[in-house]
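Q: Got a minute? One more chain.
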Amino acid sequence: MGERGGMNTHDGGADAPEAREAERSGEVDAVADAPDASEASQPAAPVEPPTGVAALSLRYRIGAAVALAVVAAAVCVHLGMVFLHIAPSNTVTKAHGKAIDEWIYPEFEQNWKLFAPNPLQQNVAVQVRAQVRTIDGGSRETGWYDLSAQDGRAIDGNLLPSHTQQNELRRAWDFFTATHDDDNRAAGVRGTLSESYLRRIVVLRLERGGAAGAGGAVERVQIRSRTTNVAAPSWSREKISTDPAYRVLPWWSVSDDEARGGVQ
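A: Always. Here it is, folded:
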């Protein structure tokens, strides 16, 4: 009996430290799991309100999406039309050439082609002469003014030549030749428009050059082109004539508005 009681006392003493260790371990875990008082006292970060399209109501977001889709569709159509305009002739351009031209002209005109460059192999000079009324009521005829040569001199050595110096006269002449036949007959309304455009340019050039003299006025103008083939390189055996060829237009009367630089 005494031995049995002693054994119980011994066992109880051995289990007591383990029980206390378990209690301490549980207290440590509870402390570790407890939230930090400093963190609990901090307020929650404010939520920023939505900006941009997300800030709009559902109705306006739908409207913005529809507008964006319309703009994207218009851009795609425009790029497609420009591509078809400058691409070589194909089935689509043959079937819908009129619709493509109506979309492109006159605001989006392109003067180059894809895949088949055709560099100009001629020198084309636009020249003009005029019949002028002098200040004393007489009339005289000027010599030929080489307007292309004037533009060439203005561009030569100029690091930043203007668009007018480079393209105005050349494009006006190209516009005329594209809308007239070999007998200088206009093909439709665009032909008449090209005549007015070209005539206005040369009259303004004559006025700036003082062709009519002090107090005089330009009454009629005549335009011609002088075309010369570019000579073949020295190493080539190709024989090319460099004799100039002229295309002379009829005399055009100048209205009072054009003589003063106005627009008809």
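A: The longest helix spans residues 2-33.
Q: Perfect, thanks.
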